[in-house]
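queue> pop job 88
queue> type: inverse folding (structure -> sequence)
queue> payload:
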């Protein structure tokens, strides 16, 4: 197959940013857009991207699967390489920020094209000519051609996917290159638009990616227990590690509802109180657990008839075709009547990155059903703090119905250790003194490095499972294994703090530019 017809080949012999035909032309002088050191940094960055591409291109399974996302009927002989997916996503990033485009951002996109598709790097020693080049009409025309010819059009009709092909495919396969690729995407935005993100959560939200948990279906959880009492619920709440502010908020809500009941019995008028609540905070901080407890509390106080909780997310509410979304929302509400409808990562319903308004349809349908069933339905929406504030503020109906906010904070190092100990107690393990010290050092380090996406109790759960695997590997070959040996986690079983930090994937400031 010729290079011209092969979508994975180097398609142009002469590099786009070659200066040969510009050096002898008489171009008027313009103010410098970028410096030689800037071009040098672009060179280093795109070289490291090409190294990632080389590794991924050698992963035949990944290449086949990502190409099937583009075209499920693709043959093995016509496969796009990772460089092409990278460039297509860079174009999408550029277009998403196109309102801020400038000669600098146009040059960055052109540079990435030349590096990824042609393995050519503009000469930083010709910085004056490069600064003149970006103002020419020929340059702008060629850039439009690049965008048109290098945007990959997917035939997959799944409207719930992010429009960024490479990270979506890596996330679905839980690929170990995902974090590196996401850093490169952030770096592109930094080079092109001087855009930075305060946390990985903000960046994932910008991309429309949900990388913190596997996609789930609707699931009914927390059916009302038999012989349950309000005292039992409050005891369970108080036994949760940390969450002092949330426990205080729940206590104050109970006080308000109990007084409402007493006023009603005395024939006094009451102000209508909404049970709908917003939970804000990072993952693994107990939002789902508290929502389950709230459903039981509302039942015991006679504000809900059943007290069950129904848990869902965007995937459980949004369909890929007009009209189907309302049906899915109705089904979720029907299963929640008499209890709590818990919508995790609710901000995803209004993310523009999905490229459709089915999420908006879900919100509008939900608002109507909340009004229809306002006497026997409580809706709890949960997610990261800033995205949730944007979500609630995006619709007047949401703002009017959700005016109660519970804030969930990161667990402290001591609280993370308490959670680890609780996992041990539930599973018949004990921790030696030297292991305790190592764990505390680990949690101090993780807490110091955390951002909003830090998984808190989820991270502790993963670490606990790693420790018991290490213990099993250590003792399996012993001839005699006592009960104490089976139960005890020693210092040797605890990964080094830096190893745990690395496994979580905290990016350094240097990696993020």
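queue> result:
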């Amino acid at each position: 197959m010729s290079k011209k017809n092969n979508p994975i080949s180097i398609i142009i012999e002469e590099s786009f940013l070659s200066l040969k035909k510009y050096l002898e032309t008489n171009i008027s002088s313009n103010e410098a857009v970028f410096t030689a050191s800037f071009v040098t940094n672009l060179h280093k960055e795109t070289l490291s991207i090409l190294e990632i591409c080389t590794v991924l291109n050698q992963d035949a399974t990944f290449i086949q699967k990502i190409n099937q996302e583009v075209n499920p009927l693709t043959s093995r002989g016509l496969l796009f390489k990772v460089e092409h997916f990278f460039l297509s996503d860079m174009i999408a990033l550029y277009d998403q920020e196109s309102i801020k485009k400038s000669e600098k951002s146009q040059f960055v996109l052109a540079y990435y094209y030349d590096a990824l598709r042609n393995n050519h790097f503009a000469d930083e020693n010709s910085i004056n000519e490069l600064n003149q080049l970006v103002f020419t009409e020929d340059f702008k025309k060629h850039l439009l051609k690049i965008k048109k010819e290098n945007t990959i059009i997917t035939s997959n009709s799944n409207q719930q996917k992010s429009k960024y092909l490479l990270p979506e495919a890596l996330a679905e396969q839980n690929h170990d290159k995902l974090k590196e690729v996401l850093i490169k995407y952030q770096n592109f935005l930094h080079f092109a638009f001087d855009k930075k993100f305060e946390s990985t959560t903000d960046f994932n939200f910008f991309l429309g990616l949900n990388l913190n948990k596997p996609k789930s279906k609707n699931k009914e959880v927390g059916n009302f227990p038999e012989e349950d009492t309000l005292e039992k619920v409050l005891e369970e709440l108080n036994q949760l590690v940390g969450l002092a502010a949330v426990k205080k908020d729940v206590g104050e809500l109970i006080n308000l509802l109990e007084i409402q009941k007493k006023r009603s019995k005395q024939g006094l008028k009451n102000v209508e109180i909404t049970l709908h609540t917003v939970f804000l905070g990072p993952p693994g901080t107990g939002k789902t657990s508290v929502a389950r407890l709230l459903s039981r509390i509302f039942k015991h106080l006679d504000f809900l008839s059943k007290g069950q909780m129904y848990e869902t997310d965007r995937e459980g509410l949004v369909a890929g075709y007009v009209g189907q979304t309302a049906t899915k929302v109705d089904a979720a509400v029907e299963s929640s009547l008499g209890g709590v409808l818990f919508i995790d990562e609710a901000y995803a319903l209004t993310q523009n990155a999905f490229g459709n308004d089915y999420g908006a349809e879900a919100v509008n349908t939900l608002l109507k059903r909340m009004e229809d069933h306002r006497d026997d339905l409580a809706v709890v929406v949960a997610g990261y703090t800033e995205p949730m504030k944007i979500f609630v503020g995006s619709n007047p109906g949401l703002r009017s119905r959700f005016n109660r906010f519970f804030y969930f904070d990161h667990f402290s190092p001591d609280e993370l250790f308490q959670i680890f100990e609780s996992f041990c107690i539930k599973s018949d393990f004990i921790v030696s003194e030297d292991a305790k010290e190592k764990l505390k050092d680990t949690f101090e380090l993780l807490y110091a490095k955390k951002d909003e996406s830090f998984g808190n109790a989820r991270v502790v759960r993963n670490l606990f499972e790693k420790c018991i695997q290490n213990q099993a590997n250590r003792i399996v070959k012993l001839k005699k294994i006592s009960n104490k040996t089976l139960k005890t986690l020693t210092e040797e079983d605890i990964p080094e703090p830096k190893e745990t930090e690395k496994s979580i994937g905290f990016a350094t400031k240097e990696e993020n530019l």
